[in-house]
């Protein structure tokens, strides 16, 4: 499977709309600690925006809503994987991406035949406190050897320059969060990402 090489992650449908408007073709909606009605509204809007743009929307964590709302893609962390109903997710036709941070998590991820594997943090990240040290580019190359044809997403501390380096090291996709959301000109930054990863 071939995926777009730039994959930003956002916490609202407004951000999804902004990304799609500048040409992003794969985006994750990652919303935490939000009431279910508001979640449903955000996911529905983001789903419709992505469909209209011919883009991929990946819903983080909320697998029941992703099934209910007819979404196409789901991303789960290792903790989410403990609670998720994988047979129901597969029966609904959802494609699945999984987070990994060490060898045991990668083995576990590969055992459920994911549609992509994410490795992180490749560099130090300010998004959330991580118990794992930065993985580095050698780990990106090692992970790619291990996952084979499964697309590999590099995440954590990426900038456009680091994203290019991760792709050169073997990642198929580069992902970013705060490099865009904290940038004074997010649209220009996303255009830079698209140019670097294109």
From TrEMBL:
E.C. numbers: 2.5.1.3
A GO MF term: thiamine-phosphate diphosphorylase activity
Pathway stated in the Swiss-Prot or TrEMBL entry: Cofactor biosynthesis; thiamine diphosphate biosynthesis
Gene3D superfamilies tied to this protein: Aldolase class I
Record domain Thiamine phosphate synthase/TenI: where: 12-180
Record keywords, A-Z: Thiamine biosynthesis, Transferase
InterPro entries with a match to the protein in the record: Aldolase_TIM, ThiamineP_synth_sf, ThiamineP_synth_TenI
Domain of life of the source: Bacteria
Name of the protein described by the UniProt record: Thiamine phosphate synthase
Source organism of the structure: Paracoccus niistensis
